[in-house]
Amino acid sequence: MSCVENLGYEVILEYTSFKEIRAYIEKHYTEVYYVDPGFLLFEKRMIGVPPIALAIEGGDTVILPYTKPCFGTYLLRVQDEEGAAYVRANARRKP
Prior knowledge:
Layout: E1 10-16, H1 18-28, E2 31-35, E3 40-41, E4 44-45, E5 52-57, E6 61-68, E7 72-79, H2 81-90, E8 92-93
Antiparallel strand pairs: 1-7, 2-5, 2-8, 3-4, 5-6, 6-7
């Protein structure tokens, strides 16, 4: 999946900052992970202010920030079992 538009995402927050996204994820999700900029997910390198927070919801849904150039940063919900498994295997779990 090389294009975010093809992921079938849902927007949770829009036009927000990485700091606000990290706080939202830490407050609303129990399965939280952290990655560094450059982490490869859905064939895209993540950008942001480290640590970048991600979450897994319901076992197969990834919650992630996405920056669309010229539009801003969004928090997205993407149902993808392989993506959730990849995050679990390769990201740092919140202590």
